[in-house]
Amino acid sequence: MEVVERDEVLGGAVSTVERWPGVRVDRGSSAHVIVRHSGVVEELELAAHGLRYLDCDPWGFAPAPVPGDPGPDGRPLVFSVDLDATCASIAAACGEDDAAAYRRFVGVWGPRSRAVVDSFGRRPTPLGLARAFWPLGAPTADAPRTPGGDLAVDFLGSGDALLDRWFTSERLKAALAWFGAQSGPPMSEPGTAAMVAWAALLHDTPPGHPVGGSGGLARALRARLESDGGHVVLGDGAARLLVEDGRVCGVETASGRRVHAPVVVAACHVLATRDLAGDDAPPALADAAPPVGNGFGLVLRCLTDALPTYPGVDPAVSGQGLQLLCTDRAQLAAAHGDWLGGRLPREPVPLAMSFSASDDTLAPPGKHVVTVWGQWYPYALADGGDWDALAEAEAQRLVAAVDRYAPGFADSVQRMYVQTPLLLERELSLLRGNVMHVEMGLASMFSLRPTPALAGYRVPGLDGLYLAGASTHPGGGVSGNSGRTAARAVLADRRPLARARAAAGRAVRAARPR
Q1: How far is residue 311's CA from residue 175's CA, in Å, rounded to a whole number?
Q2: Under CATH, what is the fold of the domain 236-282+450-511?
Q3: Omega before 474 cis (within 30°)?
Q4: C-alpha to C-alpha distance for 183 and 196, rounded to whole angstroms
Q5: What is d(CA 215, CA 29) in angstroms, rounded to the nearest whole number?
Q6: CATH 3.90.660 residue ranges in the chain?
Q7: When you count CB atoms within 10 A of the terminal residue's CB, does the N or C end of the chain come out lower?
Q8: Cα gap 133→276, rounded to integer Å
Q9: Do 335 and 373 meet the contact criterion of CB atoms below 8 Å apart?
Q10: Cα separation of 41 and 39, whole Å?
Q11: Is 307 within 8 Å of 320 (Cβ atoms)?
């Protein structure tokens, strides 16, 4: 088995580089959420191949409103693995009623979110989805059967509607909405309720960051592959697919090297796979036009001499997980509205992360790496603006948005690397800067992702080619699910009976009049 990769850095968007002398900085993902629930790490025994996760606990932090903002000042919200501690924080910041509601919310949505995890690990067929979700309606000792209509309303409804049904505090709703919105769509869209409710699972297993940076996961996967006899070639990616008699038989790389193989699994963007197939692309692939969208976000990688410090909060608490710097969902709605109009956000909404306090391999003593994520930054600006010219000013605005909650943060920043939507495309081959490859709205999920014709990981009309990666079910985010499901499809097709059926099918097609 051979993996060919155009980049000189292993792992693509799950990679880490020495950005400045002695400072290791992630290029894409930082906090790994879904993969810690998918079972992939355990199935591949990646811990034995060098992967070690540091738990993000507390996994979420939302600051008190800035003095002078409308509404009362208060205490921060701290979301820990410990549900009791989380509810105590909610009670202090938002009131006992919301704390009790959150405890019930976790009890109801924990099993539901585990069903989502199960569905993410299966092919998105009607039978597979039924197996994942059907048990949710079963009666228990504490509750009668849940009507299917009630479940449908909850799962197909918006995250905002779900939050409004459960909670009263806007601060709590804003924090959970900002967490859910990390997948892309605003929480006002249908089908986003489950994105909010994923938080219920983090009281079992929190997000994690690999020691040495996000690329630790990619390095462990490479070590596992090589222990099984495979190898990786960097800096010489696939340039075109080799096709004979309607079947893929390998790839030709950028250097002209031909790699022959009975199976090719393309984990790149589905539209990049279409280009690799060229004139050999069958209609299902040639006509694929999934919604790619107009960018996704802007990322700052900051070298600082201190962690962000929020008034009255120990940095050891706020610096562990996701710093959800939003106290009102109106901020999210405004930023998304600007994005829809092709405008820069008038009020940037940041999310900050730092793992250097718990991982001393990332930065020298007295230094920290802080990632600041700003969502809903358009790739193509309505006024024709040039991202290369705008990058520095937009970075400073996003730093100022963090500084508003953590006074002194701007002064702590010593170096910055700015990943605009355009740079994300250039550096990581993320088409139009969309880190999820394809929009994560309801109309492009499950058996609709990336298109209905390509949702089975196979490419109809081109035997031997399989799809994986963020373009396929279950979408973007670090999970490993799509690669595992594609591998299962490959193994199923290579069983003797399946091979015989495929050969017979090819013979029938070849005999048809043209």
Answers
A1: 18
A2: FAD/NAD(P)-binding domain (3.50.50)
A3: yes
A4: 10
A5: 9
A6: 2-56+207-216+293-433
A7: C
A8: 37
A9: no
A10: 6
A11: no
Estimate to the nearest angstrom the gap between the alpha carbon of 464 and the chain centroid: 28
Q: What is the DSSP string of 248-278?
A: EEEEEETTS-EEE-S-EEE-S-HHHHHHHHG
Predicted structure pTM score: 0.93
The overall average pLDDT reported for the chain is 94
pLDDT for residue 513? 58
* CB atoms near residue 71 (< 10 Å): 10
What does each C-alpha distance from 217 to 11, 44, 224, 457, 512 come to in angstroms?
8, 11, 11, 23, 48
For 299, the enclosing helix (H) or strand (E) is: strand 297-304
Which residues in the chain land under pLDDT 70?
68-73, 141, 497-514
- Is 188:40 a contact under the CB 8 Å cutoff? no
Q: Classify residue 222 as exposed, middle or buried by CB count within 10 Å of its CB (0-12, 13-18, 19+).
A: buried
Burial track 38-67 (b if 16+ CB lie within 10 A, e otherwise): bebbeebebeebbbebbbbbbbbbbbbbee
CA distance 316 to 61: 11
Residue 86 structure tokens:
């989380």
Which token pair is 468? 């994986």
What pLDDT, on the 0 to 100 scale, is given for residue 318?
Answer: 85
- The boundaries of every CATH 3.50.50.60 domain in the chain are 236-282+450-511
At 355 the pLDDT is 95
CATH number given to 2-56+207-216+293-433: 3.90.660
User: Which amino acid is it at 204?
Assistant: D
Residue with tokens 């995250």: 159
Helical (H) or strand (E) element with 391: helix 387-405
Read off the DSSP letter of residue 65: P
> Taking a C-beta distance cutoff of 8 angstroms, is the pair 250, 266 a contact?
no
pLDDT tens-digit readout, 474-498: 999 999 999 999 999 999 998 875 5
Instruction: Decide the pairing of beta strands 247-253 and 238-244.
Output: antiparallel
